[in-house]
Write a structure and sequence with these properties.
The structure holds two protein chains of two kinds. Chain A is mainly alpha-helical. Chain A is about 75% helix and about 0% strand. The longest helix of chain A is centred in the N-terminal third of the chain and has 36 residues. The two termini of chain A are about 15 Å apart. Chain B is built from eleven helices and no strands. The chains are: A mainly alpha, B mainly alpha. Chains A and B meet through α1, α6, α7, α11 and α12 of A and α4, α5, α9, α10 and α11 of B.
Chain lengths: ~300, ~280
């Protein structure tokens, strides 16, 4: 994990050096006078030798937790991220929760009714769910449930301090649009994994002992099919953060979506570096949690 | 041949639906200039934001441009982008994956490098690469190809690793086959199956991802129609012209659904465990 973190942070740092051409010219703008370009170069420390820049960057990062200043927002990158990242993480976490509940439930229903009409219906739904772009589903729902019926706000975010119900209402449509794809994926994975397990001998034994159908399904079946499900839930968190960037644009939400797009369009490299670094770290940590969960779920797995 | 086709159709009706749908969509959109459609960029200020009617079957947008034409040209662009991403990612994955799988000394460095790329969410990695390269459709293709290369490479590596243990490869080497011959003629033809299946899914992912990128404004820039940027404009006119949002999204969903159905069917056909008779 530590080597991966080192590489991720180094990659975020060299990002600016990978830009074709002189980053100072690009950041100052092509038409900028030489004096401005020189000033940008000095501000960014690009006039110093490469190894000093690397050392300074890590020193600022590790000791002061400093990621530099955003050019577009005229504020420290850490501040811009601290204001917006928690929202995106909340959105992603809620969507992951919804997707997991929906996916595991539908997948178990489909597997226990394998071959029936219900199973087919759930499979078709999941196929369609995987194919539809989440942001489009968001737009369609926004039109019907927000503009037409007025059940939900058309966009914007109400913080939980102003009441739990308005908060949930402002998040309902974004969470649903974001959860759709992953629910479909988790449904398919749960169904496949559970069907594999339900064919095992010990399931037949459990039935023969007289264990109830529901108990066989949850205690004997589902518990043993959790590993692939946890894997896909773990990877879904990263996809959720990526998807959140787009969904936030649909519903005008105050997360990192707008931040990242503005950062790219205005070539705000410190901001892009910082965002990539923080999200890379979150991604690595989530993968670590998934690895720990494997051990908790299946005692046969150990990392000794 | 016909007998095998009818057998395929009977055993895998969803696969057949996928193929028919895909062929239909490809013909309809790739042949776009032949259908006598309006110019996708031609504005008609006398019929701006007009709902679906006889002369504009799907209605018009804020510049009076014909939506049907724009959706078809957008789908054409999406298919082109998806196919290019698929080709580039598969080629890069083939080279990196077979080098890593065949030469054990290259395995570590190549796979660790690809692991780093997989340490970022796909869309965000694509966005970061576009921050370096600049926005636009061509850079979007490059960015997405880089994003999807690791998963292609992993699949090729895994199957090269398993095929190179087989006796016929050893026999070839005993008869004097060099690395190039062994890898190129004995191993790769037997290891390429899983990659072909994965390519179809990369095609589908790439179309979804590209639509997302151009929706947030870092992909294909307007006025060139792409399914993503038509939807971005539709969002701004949601209240007055809701008809604008339906078809671009439906087109994306149809293309991705068709590809996924084909991919699933192909995977089942190639995986002997699931083959029946």
């Amino acid at each position: 994990m530590l080597p991966l973190l080192a590489v991720i942070s180094f990659l975020s740092f060299v990002l600016i050096h990978l830009v074709p051409g002189d980053p100072a010219v690009i950041m100052a703008g092509m038409q900028a006078p030489d004096s401005v370009i020189e000033q940008v170069r000095q501000e960014m420390g690009l006039d110093r030798p490469f190894h000093t820049q690397v050392l300074d960057w890590y020193q600022a990062l590790v000791i002061r937790g400093d990621l530099g200043r955003s050019y577009f927002f005229h504020a420290p990158v850490t501040q811009a991220l601290a204001e917006r990242l928690p929202f995106t993480l909340t959105l992603a976490a809620l969507s992951m929760l919804v997707a997991t509940i929906v996916g595991v439930t539908l997948g178990s229903i489909a597997a226990s009714a394998a071959g029936t009409f219900l199973d087919r219906a759930i499979l078709v739904m999941s196929l369609v769910g995987i194919a539809m772009p989440g942001f489009w589903v968001g737009l369609v729902m926004m039109f019907y449930f927000a503009v037409d019926l007025g059940w939900f706000p058309t966009g914007g975010y109400t913080p939980p301090i102003e009441g739990v119900v308005p908060w949930l209402r402002s998040l309902a449509l974004p969470v649903f649009s974001l959860a759709l794809l992953e629910s479909a994926l988790i449904t398919r994975m749960t169904r496949a994994s559970l069907l594999d397990v339900l064919g095992e001998d010990y399931i037949r034994t459990a039935h023969a002992k007289g264990v109830g159908h529901r108990r066989v399904l949850t205690r004997h079946g589902l518990r043993n099919s959790l590993i692939p499900i946890i894997t896909i839930v773990g990877t879904s968190f990263g996809n959720m953060i990526g998807g959140a960037v787009i969904i936030e644009m649909v519903f005008s939400l105050p997360g990192i979506g707008r931040l990242v797009t503005m950062a790219i369009l205005s070539r705000d490299y410190p901001l892009i570096q910082g965002t990539m670094l923080v999200i890379g770290i979150i991604y690595v940590v989530v993968n670590l949690i998934v690895d720990v969960l494997y051990v908790a779920v299946d005692p046969r797995i150990s990392y000794a | 041949m016909t007998a095998r086709l009818t057998k395929f159709a009977r055993q895998r009706p969803t696969g057949l639906v996928g193929i028919v749908l895909l062929v239909g969509l490809v013909v309809a959109s790739v042949g776009a200039p032949l259908w006598g459609l309006a110019d996708p960029l031609e504005s008609d200020y006398l019929s701006m934001l007009s709902p679906p009617a006889a002369d504009h079957v799907l209605g018009t947008d804020q510049y009076g441009r014909d939506l049907l034409t724009r959706v078809i040209y957008g789908a054409r662009l999406s298919l082109g982008i998806g196919a290019s991403v698929m080709t580039l990612a598969a080629l890069a994955g083939l080279v990196l994956g077979s080098l890593a799988g065949y030469f054990s000394r290259l395995d570590g460095p190549i796979m660790r490098g690809l692991d780093v790329l997989m340490a970022f969410p796909a869309i965000l990695l694509a966005i970061a690469i576009m921050a370096i390269l600049g926005t636009g459709a061509r850079n979007g293709v490059i960015a997405l190809a880089i994003v999807y290369t690791p998963r292609c490479a992993r699949i090729v590596r895994a199957s090269v690793l398993s095929v190179r243990q087989r006796t016929f490869v050893e026999a070839g080497q005993a008869l004097g086959a060099g690395d190039a011959r062994s890898l190129g003629i004995h191993i790769l033809p037997n290891a390429i199956g899983p990659l072909v299946v994965q390519m179809i899914f990369v095609f589908a992912y790439a179309i979804l991802a590209d639509a997302g990128l151009s929706f947030i404004g870092v992909g294909t820039p307007p006025p060139t129609p792409s399914l993503g940027n038509i939807l971005a404009e539709a969002r701004d006119y949601l209240m007055v012209a809701p008809w604008l949002m339906w078809w671009p999204g439906a087109a994306i969903a149809a293309i991705v659904l068709a590809l996924n159905l084909c991919g699933d069917a192909l995977r089942e056909v190639m995986d002997p465990r699931q083959r029946s008779g």
